[in-house]
Amino acid sequence: MSATPQLPPVARLEQKTVVDLLSKGRRIDERTPENYRQIQVQLGLIEKANGSAQVFLGKSKVLAGVKIETGEPFPDTPEEGVLTVNAELVPLASPSFEAGPPSEAAIELSRVVDRGIRESKAVDLKSLVIQKGKKVQVVYVDVYVLDHDGNLIDAAAMAALGALVNSKVAKMEVKGDEVVVKGGHHQLPLNNYPIAVTFAKIDKTIVIDPSLEEEQVMSARLTVTIDKNGDICAMQKGGLSGFTPDEVRKAVQMAVVKAAENRAKIMAAAKG
Amino acid sequence: MVIVAEPKNVVAPGELLAEGDHLLGDNAYRIGTKIFSDCVGILEIDGNRVFVVPLKGGYIPRVGDLVAGRIVDIGLSGWSVDIRAPYEAMLPASETPGPRGPRRRDLSTSYDVGDMLIAEILAFDRTRDPLLTVKGPGLGKVATGRVVEISAAKIPRLIGRKGSMISMLKRETDCQITVGQNGVVMVWGKSPDSERVAVEAIYMVEREAHTRGLTDRIREMISKSRMVEQVAGTQTA
Amino acid sequence: MPEPKQPERLIDDKGLRIDGRRLDELRPIKLEVGILDKADGSAYIEQGKNKILVAVYGPREAHPKHIAMPERAVIRCRYHMAPFSVDERKSPAPSRREMELSKVIRESLEPVVLTELYPRTTIDLFIEVLQSDGGSRCAGITAASLALADAGIPMKEMVAACAVGKIQGKLALDLSDAEDKYGDADIPVALVPNAGLVTLLQMDGHLTPSEFEQGFSMALEACKTLHAMQREALKKKYATMKEVAEEKEEAEVVA
C-alpha cells in the first residue's frame, strides 16, 4: 500500500528562503533554474563487473555495475537476450533510507531507469542470443545510490548508461551440453543512449536537477527521458501536486537540450 | 453575480455553482470569481450566501455537540469512547457526576466496556482527541433502548427546521428519542412495536432526506404501521 | 481460454482498430457509484473489458499511530490485480508494478482531497482490478475519484484519467491491452480540470516531441469528457432517490 510519505519537518524559514530566491530567479546554491549541478563521470572502477560507472551529480553519488551471465530467454521472445535493471537505495546513502525490502521510492527509481534503457532499445538484445530459444546472455544492471543529495533519477540513469557503455561482453557458443566462451571480450553493442532529465516545481517556478533541499519543498517532479535522436522514451511525474499542460510542454523542450549536454559527458568519459 | 448551478439540486465536487462576489458558506470554495462545490450535496442559496449541504460524510466532532457512543476501553483515569468519528473520544473520570475524593474506585463499576453513553463534547482541536463529559441533565449511561446509526450528514434533516421533524416523530411514535450529532440515535418506546416503527422512520429520513414532502410521508407511514399494529392486536386479543 | 495471438494489424484499411473503434474513440464506459455496503464510499468502472472496483474507508483513525501526520490526513492507496484478471494468472502477491502504480495513483489524487480537514487520520483507497485490458491505472483513478466523493470526503474536484498511445505509427486514444503490448508508445494522463493541473503523467515507448504533443492534447480532451461522465454518474446516483420519492408522491396524489 502506498501512503503519503512522512515529510521531514522542513523549517518554514528555509522553505521561504528557497521560494523567495526563486522569485528572483536564483537558487540557494547559486544556480539558475536551467542549470545542472556539476557532473563527474568515471567508468570502469569495478574490475569484476563487465562494466561500471560512478556518477557524481552535485553531492549525489551513484555507482552502477553491469554483470552479464548466461540464462534462458523469456518464452515469448526466444530470439532476444534479457535485460534487467535494478536500483537500490542503500541505507548508507541517507539517514532516511532503511535496510529491508525495497521502498516504493526504490521501486519507482528502478522502473524509471529501466524504462529509459528498455524503451529506447539501448541494448541490442538480439546480439545476446547464444542458442535461439534456449540460451541467451542476461544483462544485469544494478544501480547503487551511495549518497542522496537530490535528483537520484538523473544520476542513476546516467550511471546505468555509463556502466553499459563501459561494458565488455564475451562471445559465447554452445559446445555439446555446455555454453563456453568463444572469443575475446568486445564492447557490449548499444543502439541508443537514453538520458533522464528531471524537473521540480517549487511554487510557480520550474527548476532542473533539484538538490535535496529543493526536493523537500517541491510540489511535484517530472522526469523526461530523451534518446540519442531527441525523441522521448520515458516520462514520469511524481509528487503531491501537478503540472500545467504548458509546464509539461516547456519541460519536454528543455529536456531535449539538456539530455544532449549530459550525454556528451558520458561519452567523453568513455573515450577518456 | 450569477448562479450557475440549480439551487435545491444535487451538485458534484468541482461543479461550478456561481460567479461573482457571493459569500462562501460551508462546502463552497472560490477560484478567482468562480465558486465551486467541494462535495456531493444539495446547493442552497441563502440571500447572498452560497453553500452546499453534503449528502454524505462522517462525523467531525464539534465542541458542545451531544453525541451517543460506546465504551471501548478503560484506562487509568477514564474511558475511551467510540463516537463513530475518525478520532476516539476520551471521558475522564473527573467529568462524571458523583462524589469526588481520594477514595479509589474501580472505573468499570461506573461504566464498563460495551456500555452506551450519551455525552457532550467538552473539548476538541486539531492536536488532540475529543474530550467528553457526562455531567449534565440527560447525560450518562444508557441501559435500555435501541441504537440506530445513520449518516451524521442526515442528522440536521432528522431534527428538522426548529426541531419540527424530530418532534413529529416523537409524538407520532410515542417514543423517547435522543439524537446524537454523530449520527447515533437512541430510541425508547413503550413497546417493541412502537420502537420498531420509530427506527424504520429514522432510516426513512436517512434514505429520503433530500426529497420534498418527507415529513408528510413519514407521518403517513407511521400511522399506517400503527393501524396494522392495532388490527393485529385486536385479532390476537 | 485460448491464448491470444499477436494481431496481424492494429489498424485496418478503413482506419478502424481491432475492436472496430476509430483512432480518437474511447471504449464504452459504465460508471456506478455506491455499490458496496460496508465501505464509506465505493465506485465501479467498466471501460472496454476493464472491470475495476474501488472502495474508500475513511477518514478513520490512523493505525499504527506513527504513520499519522499532525496537519493532515494520510492517503493510502492500494492498486491490486486479481489473479484471474489477466491472460496468464498473476500471483496475488503485490508485484513491483502494482507498487509503482499504487504510488502514482495516490499522487494523482493527493492534490484534490482536502486532507487538512482531517489531521491525524488515514483515508484508505482500495483499487481492485477484477479484469484488466489496458489502461487500468487510468480507469482506476476515474473510479477512485467517484468513490472518494461517494464517501463524502471533501475534494476540490474529481480527477479523470485516460491514456493515449501510438499504434502502427498513429496516435490512438484509450489503448486496449493488445494495442499497448504491440504498439509503440503509451501515455497515461490524469487531469484536474478546474485547476488545470496534470496530476498523473507517464510515458513509455518512442515518440517524437511533436507526436507527444499531439497525443498529450488528445488525452487531455478525453479527460474532460470522462470528467463530465463522472459528474453525471454521481448526480444520477443521488437524483434517483429523489425521483423515487417524487413518483411515490405523485402516485398518492392521483390515487
Unreliable sequence segments of chain A: none
**How does the overall form of chain A come out from the CA principal axes?**
elongated
Biggest sheet features of chain A: 6 strands, mixed
Adjacency order of strands in the biggest sheet of chain C? 1-2-3-5-4
CATH superfamily of chain C: GHMP Kinase, N-terminal domain
As for the CATH topology of chain A, it is Ribosomal Protein S5, domain 2
Q: Helical amount among residues of chain C, as a percent range?
A: 25-40%
**If helices are DSSP runs of H or I spanning 4 or more residues, what is the number of helices of chain A?**
5
Give the radius of gyration of chain A.
Answer: 20 Å
What is the overall number of helices of chain C? 4
**Structural class based on helices, strands and sheet pairing of chain C:** alpha+beta
N-C termini distance of chain C:
56 Å
Name given to the CATH architecture of chain C:
2-Layer Sandwich
How many domains of chain C? 1
Summarize this, please?
With 272 residues, chain A is α+β, with helices and mostly antiparallel strands. Chain A has five helices and 13 strands. Chain C is globular, with a radius of gyration of 20 Å.
Write a structural description.
The complex is a heterotrimer of chains A (272), B (237) and C (255). The N and C termini of chain A lie far apart (46 Å). Chain A contains 5 helices and 13 strands. Chain A is elongated. In chain A, helix 2 packs across helix 3 and helix 3 runs parallel beside helix 5. In chain A, strand 10 and strand 11 form a beta hairpin. Chain A has one domain: Ribosomal Protein S5, domain 2, CATH 3.30.230. Chain A has 272 residues and is of the alpha+beta class. Helix content of chain B is 23%, strand content 35%. Chain B has 3 domains: 53 residues, RNA polymerase II/Efflux pump adaptor protein, barrel-sandwich hybrid domain (OB fold (Dihydrolipoamide Acetyltransferase, E2P), Beta Barrel); 77 residues, OB fold (Dihydrolipoamide Acetyltransferase, E2P) (Beta Barrel), CATH 2.40.50; 91 residues, K Homology domain, type 1 (Ribosomal Protein S8, Chain: A, domain 1, 2-Layer Sandwich). With 237 residues, chain B is α+β, with helices and mostly antiparallel strands. The model of chain B has no long low-confidence stretch (mean pLDDT 89). Chain C has 255 residues and is an alpha+beta fold. Chain C has a single domain, classed as Ribosomal Protein S5, domain 2. Chain C is built from 4 helices and 9 strands. Chain C has a 5-stranded mixed beta sheet. A 4-stranded antiparallel beta sheet of chain C has the order 7-6-8-9. The interface between A and C is large, with 38 and 46 residues.
